[in-house]
Amino acid sequence: MEKHEKAVAVALWLGGGTEKEELSFAELYSLAATAGVQVLAGFTQNRSEIDNRYYIGPGKAEEIGDYVRESEIDTVIFDRELSPSQVKNLERIIPAKIIDRSELIMDIFAQRASSREGQLQVELAQLHYQLPKLMGRGRDLSRLAGGIGTRGPGETKLEVDRRRIRQRIHVLEQELKKLEKHRALLRKRRDRRRIFQVALVGYTNSGKSTLLNQLTKAEAYTADILFATLDPLSRRLETEHNTIVFTDTVGFISGLPHHLIAAFKGTLEVVVNADLLVHVVDLSHPDMAMQIEEVNKVLRELGCLEKDQIIAANKIDMLPDLTSQELAGKFRDLPYVPVSALTGLNTDKLLAAVEAHTEPWEIIRVLLPLEIFRNLSSANLGSLLPLEFTNDDRVRVEAELPARIAATLRQYETEK
Question: What does pTM read for this prediction?
Answer without folding.
Answer: 0.73
